[in-house]
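Batch manifest, entry 17 of 40.
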Amino acid sequence: HLGAHPSVGRGMVMVREDRPGDRRLVAYTVPAAGAAIDPAALRSALGSVLPDYMVPSAVVAMDALPLNANGKVDRRALPAPESASGTGRAPRDAREEILCGLFAEVLGLESVTIDDSFFDLGGHS
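Output type: structure tokens
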């Protein structure tokens, strides 16, 4: 489904474990000619045809996928996804401040805003 999306020229999905015990799906994409990758729109499109557990928690847009000497994707050279946190509103009261602090701690992030989605940042049950 990832490769069938019109904005994706080339792509792959893999399980990453950047923190011990925290495994998550990450999609790596190269845009199709004349297209741009919108990670949120791509995740939404995948969510309309895949069960939630199969939708990548992050989409990393790249100019090209790194290849090894055999011409296969060099998985070790793929970057960890960047956090999209920090672009929302600050906590408005003590309760929101505590919750944002707890979410940041659980997710291993420096900060989380009240507009951030726990699951979009890599959280899971």
